[in-house]
Amino acid sequence: MNPQLLRILGWAIPVICMAGGSYATYSQYSRLQTAKESQAAAELDRKRAEDALTLARKQVEEAGRYAAEPSTDFEGTLFLNDLRLRAQKAGVQIASWKTTTAPASAGAGSDEKRAKLLEGIDRVSSELVLDGSYQAGRAFVEDLTRTERLYTINSARWNRGAEGGTQLTITVSRYVMKPSASTPTERT
Question: Which residues pair with 54 in a beta bridge?
Fold first, then answer.
């Protein structure tokens, strides 16, 4: 073999190996930097969510210890989407719903302290008509009772559906705090 060719190969092979190793190291370093940036962004999102939760809990504590959600522009939409997901999971369909809002009341004969806790809180009642099997209706109600948010079920009526299924009519109430005049509402 030509000694000149051996000399060139003696230099070229290590240079090619070093270049390949440098490229592999740089690409892994770039992936690591991207992962760090993604982790920092996720940490910032988590921190913002924790701050929003802390603010919401503080608003609830200021209103007393009554389990009411802060009023937001999307509270009703989030509630309905939650119900739709629970209905889909249980295997029932929401045929109709009707919502009414009224100030929450402590009831007749309640003391002033309890009535004061309910100031600024609305009771939002939604009458839902659900179509599906009896077991699916029961699963929906059971899932609804296991949620962390306070829902009250005021009435439940079971009827036989037109096509042999079951129709469940229930009234689900939730409690929403009105935004106070001193608390600015954040809009995004």
Answer: none
Burial of 176 (0-12, 13-18, 19+ CB in 10 A): buried
Q: pLDDT tens, position by position, for the chain (188 residues)?
A: 687 888 888 888 989 999 999 999 999 999 999 999 999 999 998 888 888 888 877 776 665 545 677 777 778 888 888 889 999 999 999 999 898 888 777 666 566 766 777 777 888 889 999 998 889 999 999 998 888 888 888 888 998 876 778 899 999 988 888 766 444 444 43
Beta-carbon-side half-sphere exposure of residue 14 (alpha carbons within 13 Å): 5
Q: Using alpha carbons only, what angle is made at residue 57 by residues 141 and 77, rounded to the nearest 5 degrees?
A: 50
Phi-psi region of 107 (alpha: psi -120 to 50; beta: other; left: phi over 0): left
Alpha carbon separation from 163 to 84, 132, 182 (Å, rounded): 22, 10, 54
Distance between CA 177 and CA 188 in Å, rounded? Answer: 20
Cα gap 164→167, rounded to integer Å:
10
Quickly tell me which residue has 């889909």 as its tokens: 88
Dist CA 85 CA 76 (whole Å): 14
Q: How far apart are the first and last CA of the chain?
A: 74
pTM check: above 0.90:
no
